[in-house]
Amino acid sequence: MIKKKLHLSTLQLFLASLFLVFSMMGAQAQEDATTSDAESATPVEATPSESDTSGGNATQGEALFKANCASCHKLYKKAVGPALFEVTKRHDREWLYEWIKNSAALIATGDAEALAIYNEYNQSNMNAFPGLSNQDIDNILAYTDTPKPVATTAAPVDGEAAAGGGGTSSMTNNIVLGALALVLIVLIVVLFAVNTTLKRFATANGIQTEFEEEDRTERTPIWKAFVQNQFLVLVTAIFLLLASAYFVYGALMSVGVDQGYAPVQPIHYSHRIHAGVSQIDCKYCHSSARESKHSGIPSLNVCMNCHKSIAEVADGTYQEGIEEYGIDYNKEIQKLYSATGWSEDEQAFVGEEQPVRWVRIHNLPDLAYFNHAQHVTAGNIACQTCHGPVEEMEVMYQYSPLTMGWCINCHRETNVDLAGNGYYEEIHKELSEKRGGRQLTVADLGGIECGKCHY
Amino acid sequence: MATTKKYWKSTAQLDTSNEMIKSLEQNEFATPVPTEEFLGDDKAMESSSTTRRDFLKYVGFSTAAASLAACEGPVINSVPYVNQPERLIPGIANYYATTIANGYDFASVLVKTREGRPIKIEGNRDIAARGNASARVHASVLGLYDNNRLKTPLVKGKESTWSELDKEVRQQLNANAGKQIVFLTQTFASPSTAKLMEDFKAAYPNVRQVTYDTVGEDAALDAFEAKYFQRGLADYDFKDAECIVSIGADFVGDWQGGSFDTNYAQSRVPKNGKMSHHVQFESNMSLAGANADQRYPVTPTEQKQIIAALYSKVVGGSANSNLSDKVSKAVEQAAQKLRRAGSKGVVLCGLPDQGAQQLALEINEQLGSTIIDTANPILTRQGSRRAVNQLVKDMESGAVGAVFVAGVDPFYSYDDNEAFAKAWKNVPLKVSLASRLDATAEQSDYVATTPHYLESWGDVEMKKGTVSLMQPTINTLFDTRQLQDSLLVWSGSNETYKDYLKTSSTANGSSWNQSLQDGFYTATLSETSGTESEVPTINNAAALRDLGASKATGDYELVLYTKISMGDGTQANNPWLQELPDPITRTTWDNYITVSQKDADNLGIENFNVANGALDGSYAIVRMDGVERKIPAIIQPGQAVGTIGLALGYGQTSSIQEEMQTGVNAFPFFKNGRTVQSVSVEVAGGVHEFACTQLQNTMMGRDIIRETDMGTYLKGNRDEFNPMIEVSLNHIGTPVTSPDVDLWESFDRSVGHHFNMSIDLNACTGCGACVVACHAENNVPVVGKTEVRRSRDMHWLRIDRYYSSTDSFEDDESKKDGFSGLFGDNGSLGGFGELEIPADEPQVAFMPIMCQHCNHAPCETVCPVAASSHSRQGQNHMIYNRCVGTRYCANNCPYKVRRFNWFLYNGNDEFDYHMNNDLGRMVINPDVTVRSRGVMEKCSMCIQMTQMTILEAKKDGRMIEDGEFATACSNACYNGAITFGDINDKESEIFEVKQQDRMYHLLEEVGTEPNVMYQVKVRNV
Questions:
Q1: pLDDT, tens digit (0-9, with 9 covering 90-100), for B79-119
Q2: Which end of chain B is more exposed for a tag (fewer CB within 10 A), N or C?
Q3: Are B775 and B911 members of one domain?
Q4: Which residues in chain A have their CB less than 8 angstroms from residue B874's CB?
């Protein structure tokens, strides 16, 4: 009884000290986090100044800019059209009203300024915006005059700084872990000391703590008893054999199954940002999945449809990339540019094309025939059914085992979506009559015949 | 007692005088195994630092290392386009219309490309004239990926650049402009090239073009030109023909460029109680002869007399001929049939004799034949031997300053190539426009390397009035430039040939894009053909007199022919064609002389089968004024006595891979471009090993190919010509198809698709296009001569050829049925032996056999690993990755259509054919697995194609229409012999065909319920 109590108290003590230590640690970690936040959080975005010389409202202007202008213009960088920062200093405001409302008309008048810009940008016409009032334009211009937030430059932009950023976060982690280890060692020492002290108290108080002489001589050690009990040995042996067989089987079965395979790609492409945050449809890029057996790794010209005008990610996204994934997204976009030969300054493909050697993630063996169109177009299966939550994957990985058992299982269980497909109408009518009117699975249609996938 | 019994392993062992057998009895191995040499060499053994223990260690380590290395999967890269071409979706095939025109084969074709690689050729069915793709045309895609092609232009035999070559050629052209500049070319039949040549003449007035057909049709061209004032060949449309009399013309094969078989086959299928009647007089057993209703083996001399006799009977005039009674009677009957057929009758002549050709044209004119078309002639042969012979003289005399050789190889194919070589030396500038370093290119100063036709632009007027267009289906693989572009550069023009072609085609009033998509346009501008004819004219009466009085000179008449596989030898480096069995002899990788049994007996020529069944034969020496060649001989049933046949196109060595250097060059015998020559023959020593794919030549009266005559068929009593086989159930005859006598329970195949294939034995001419198409579609490997000899050929589809052992197959059957007892005249013991020997004048029948996709498949029940299984759609599946190679299935297959991969045929240096190099592997169809060693394979009924058709319908959400389902062979069969479709579609053609009274299943009595059916062959006798 006493002994038990003693045990309890030790446990309590242990728990208490553990709690103490952890709360200490937590506080420390929090402190770390806040300091690191404080370092980087400040320069998130420069708020557009409310008032301006011409009386435009920059906040409203920002909205208008994003709606009408952003597809071709950037503030601080040349895109399809010129960079608009401080455009009011370069051109007369009245001229700007005319130009924005109908640039073509202005060019037609032979205005020298207009013609110069027209020719500079390969004689491509800017859309006319007759719907914008002078006040709207003022607002937009107010926004364009917003100076580039200086603090952004303080945040690491080039590689070294990014690496440094990654380094600090891992450093804090190391410190935390080191402290934790130290605390644990202290704890063990403390516990040992407490134990000896308690024992000393016990002996001092005359409580028996050691049970040695009389019992131990008679009893056989437990392992000897175990060895002598043949039945137990047999049962354990069988159990162990079965258990090991189970694990060996599992291990063998997983040979060649690369579930979770997430190789490092030559360009860090985030499905999370594209499919998740930006909500781009899978089949926008993997368009051949609708038509062909291959889903098709998108050719780089598909990337450039958008990335011609997206040379940098938003600052928030940028910080997220640096902190959570240690990736400089802007650098990755630059890799895309060098692969396609895109020049940001000239806004044209000038360099040499260098095809990207992506690492293939889903490697179905050649002996199995798989057709994406069959599943995506004919079967109306969502991509996520096999590929998992791609929209959450920062790094793409193989979600499904891609084993034959996995295929067959799905073919057995999945009801065929027959509605509205003229091909299935008749076959469905006849077959479901035979099957007593129940829904048809892929297997009912011959989807588990060997030769359908192996030829 | 048992110990004294002597077992013998082969009949050869019974021959006690056989030295080989004696030595083999003493020794286990024919050649001693050199163990002593190796182990007895103490020095070598001691100097080796590897002890036995070390060796074992190495083995252990390497095994461990290999297994460790295998634990980690390889990293596979995917490299997408930087800029994906708009119309290209990875995984989806694109088709382009283009035209092959290599000087021998001309056809309008569709090219299937995958990810930009051409992988298969199909015929262009939209073009009415000459869109059939023969076996050679189907195989031509492999020529694109030929490793022996030249990769750069050559200057003096060294790899060079175009700028250097152009500079030097133009320099030398200008230096030699005073002399003749000659273009020795194949027949292009290209309007734009002809125009280009005229333009070139503007730059160099002394230019002239000499057209040279490797295997020409001079006699027919001369006769046609003399009569119709245009150098061309009459076209024939046999669709409505009622009587076809052919004298030495293999018009089902390569005669006058071929492509006549489609319409011919249509006339051969009995419709409304009618089919054409075909009489063939010929020397060699040809495809036409094999398909004929009546065939008479006669010598070429007799053929001349026959045409004279026929002329006198149909047109008039008297011809004195000394034909045998049998032949004169046949001629009389043929004349009668022709007169009766009137305008639906036609006479064809294959003799290399202008008079004979002229008389044939006259007969057709007299008949008012609508089968022959002389208004819009075929233009694919325009060569002139006279002009070539004249050129050799001019070159010899030094009158020629420059010669450009394009598309032909006179050093190989000109009969007197010594004279040619001698004359060649007197020409200052010799340029070859060739795609490989052929014999002529080897002797040229410059080689302006030309691309394959799949990389070229062009136009071809195969038949007057219709121009087919050639467009590139892939960028040039090597640094090549086509002839027309070279001409433009050398004449100082900056235009590309593509633009030139576009201008010239649109000038004809066609829309360029539409024509390119269709592959052809109808020419509105009439060709000017008013050139003055140099052809000598012959008086009909004189021709009649000469032909009637013709006499044979020499011992034997040699009849040269071309094989459907090799043609004129342009594609000699193509392993598919080398391994394509000759439809008649079923021999691969060889040419040989064909002799009749009677002549063989006289000469002492023997053919015999060796222990593993393969065929061996004697050599013969063939002599003709100074030319002497030792050629293997094959005994050919149906060969006219006194004649021998020999195929052209073999025996090339220049830039031909060693494996493909097969056969004997027969061109030295091709004097003056005439296919008939007088020769002497004698037997020579040595034994030649043939590689035949069929060893049993007769059906021995068995029920394999069902055949009947027109009379019986017209009576309409199915039991008489196509009886249902009955088996005994409780001593009552029950049809074998009845479920009562069936061991198996049948699948329910009433829902969905159920594929059936029908093969009409009347329409099958044995042309072999399906065999090559199957090769291309299904990645069937080439195994080489020695493996074929071991019966290890991999063809998924074979065309069996049977000879009758009596006068007809029906007689064979009645002879077999008449057997009583073992011995005596009607004894089966001797009788079956006799049935094994083909008759001297046999009937011939072809039967394409692929996997029959049995509903009750014997192969499926014996597979221990269920690698062979059945589908509800009627296809018998073969799952390669399950197969462990027991070969039980092949043993249990009654049709013998399963093929075993004895070796790894891809990426294996022992099988150095197209699948052993990266270039050749580009032809592989990505939708079909490339099989590995140790697995069984067979016809899948092109499941990748049927599945694709179904998927397309599903994607569009529609039902499948009849005619959408196809296989490689049914697509390739222009003759309409192969019908494929869904039997559950009651509106389909295949359903209709299955109800025909000619329908039967092969070996129905076995109860396999095949999904492939055959249509009884009807002979119009």
A1: 998 888 888 888 899 999 999 999 899 999 999 999 889 99
A2: N
A3: yes
A4: none
